[in-house]
Amino acid sequence: MVHGGKPRPMKGIRQLAEHLDISIGTVSRALNGKPDVNEETRKRVLAAAEQLGYVANQSGRSLRQGTTNVIGLMIQSSKETVENSDNFFLTVTGGLQSVFSRHNLDLIMLPCPHDEDPYEYLKRMVARRVVDALILSETQRVDKRFDMLAKAKIPFAALGRSLSGVQHPWTDLDFDGVANCAIDRLVAHGHRRIAISTPASDINLGFVFVEGYRRALERHGIPYDPALVIRAKSSEQGGYQVADELLRLDDRPTAVLLIYELMAIGLYRRVMEAGIVPGRDIAVVGFREAPRAKFLQPTLTCFRTSLHDLGVELAEILLSSMPAYNHFYPNTRLQRTWPLELVPGESDAFQLTTRK
Amino acid sequence: MVHGGKPRPMKGIRQLAEHLDISIGTVSRALNGKPDVNEETRKRVLAAAEQLGYVANQSGRSLRQGTTNVIGLMIQSSKETVENSDNFFLTVTGGLQSVFSRHNLDLIMLPCPHDEDPYEYLKRMVARRVVDALILSETQRVDKRFDMLAKAKIPFAALGRSLSGVQHPWTDLDFDGVANCAIDRLVAHGHRRIAISTPASDINLGFVFVEGYRRALERHGIPYDPALVIRAKSSEQGGYQVADELLRLDDRPTAVLLIYELMAIGLYRRVMEAGIVPGRDIAVVGFREAPRAKFLQPTLTCFRTSLHDLGVELAEILLSSMPAYNHFYPNTRLQRTWPLELVPGESDAFQLTTRK
DNA sequence: ACGCGCTCCGTAAACGTTTACGATACTATG
DNA sequence: CATAGTATCGTAAACGTTTACGGAGCGCGT
Predict the structure, then answer these.
(1) Predicted pLDDT at A3
(2) Which strand ranges, in their side-by-side order, compose the sheet holding A255-258?
(3) Which nucleotides in chain D lie less than 7 Å from some protein C-beta?
(4) I need a labelling partner for B92 at 20 to 30 A (CA). Which of A189, A286, B10, B30 fits?
């Protein structure tokens, strides 16, 4: 039984303690920055820990204190979601982490498998107790997950508002504001028959988007026509399909508002097949800005925002709703819509001449 | 102290045991499917656990058995990576999970913050001991992470081969095979001056890609010209830049091989600005297939593969390298390149007429 | 000399599991 | 009936932390 030699891999705080010839209590206090420990011994402990490569076992720690210092971001990578949303999550993640890291919190992503019920998945993850708090995305119109988390008293914030019972913290892109702005612009250009695309799923953003569209129309005295609300997947194929439906309408719309900018690629393609050119015969406005939109001809009018900053906001909202952290973020609004900036393109830059 | 009434939230296995009036040992054995427990009582235990919503505390469990049943997928969301699509990761994730879930393993994603050194980040995550094994992606040419994990004796597999010392399990797309096939095709069409794009970073796939390109060229007796290897970011902008550089070359190439299919969008745009049309004046071949490629005019010749199946393979490789699971996957090759299938498009479907 | 407060540290009890070990009751076998 | 074997269960010791509690030593004022 060799005892000296190379510093063998640390087994636990116990070995570190007996190597320093002090008690484990003191070692623990030294490592955790507790006040009642001599500065001198703290230095020794930290040095020894560094040298021997000791690092606290997280299981033991979180068993004892019931906390893990990990925040989970649940993402439901449904087939549809996978097709769009490329950099969306990773960009938001960057913003989240920039805040969390200041508090020594780590972020992990919890991807719900396609074939599993998100609610059951979340239950499993909560039961694992590997996260202290959660960020939910892709919120449904009514979302059982919120009620469950509220009942389980685990803090959470949502990326996207919802109608669910509990008042929960969230940030959300300003979907109705965007719809509002787009309609104002299109109406000013002479359009009165304006279609809108919305996701086929129960995700809440679609409802909010259409609601804003409806209110804006009514403000201009234009009746709301359900036939102009086209449900389609948020992908290029979806855009193609939207155009297809548009062309089939009797009183063909002169403008269309897309929930997802990539759809414009498919839409352009389909209408051009029909001899209709975007930006001249039909106005197109897209939600959010993708780098790809810049490569469309004609360039797409859309809305820009910083997803990174949205992540920052979301993290702060979550933390301010957690007792242990809320003093860092004293007066934070717990619900916040995130503004977007209009990026004018050529796709709607024409005045509609009343042709009939 | 009320004792009856609503089933209050379970505190632990102890309460569950005394509610059933049996010992905690038996309860634990019943829940974990151990053999020495009466089928009758097992049923009772499972029923009670279900009814009271009991679920084992993961910290306690993993403290005791030193295992967490969680696999981590580390992703370095570098700025550049974010610009490309993360549906890559989400798709692979689907394949991984379909395997892991059979073994009651959960997958979490560990996104390394932009501003943190991936190596340090990984060290922190390993220290947390929240994962039993790891999957690394975006492997560098030489990657310190592998050595660290090997030394720490934590199992891992990589998405992408590397030159690092240790023989580690990996799957990788068949970059050199693709380069090979593309060159054969282009040469058959009369091209001899063929450019190639490669990432600007130290990620290994670029080296493998160029290596395959080089060997294929030499097989055809075409000298390798370093000037034709263009480093650029894997984005539309990068494609634009590649085209820019191409146009600046004296003896202008008649074909180009792109490491990332989205680059074709920018490349098309730039060459068309110069009056050169893809598929007639210049041949373009892209690596991997994106849905977007279908919307390009002319359609892009590229290579298709199932990233989901690649995930399946990767998961199996990882598990077969773990003592506790390897009997499930007896004779699995621990290193495997993943084949891709050619998807012929119009972008290289012309015979080069020798023009000079 | 005594008591008090302060600083620093050791002791031991939790946290919620799993599991080796032994105990009990019952069955089969001689 | 004695004994061995089997099926089932209870007991208690781990796993590695954190932390409440108390104790030792010291300075200081009375």
Answers:
(1) 39
(2) A229-231, A194-198, A255-258, A283-286
(3) 7-12, 14-20
(4) A286
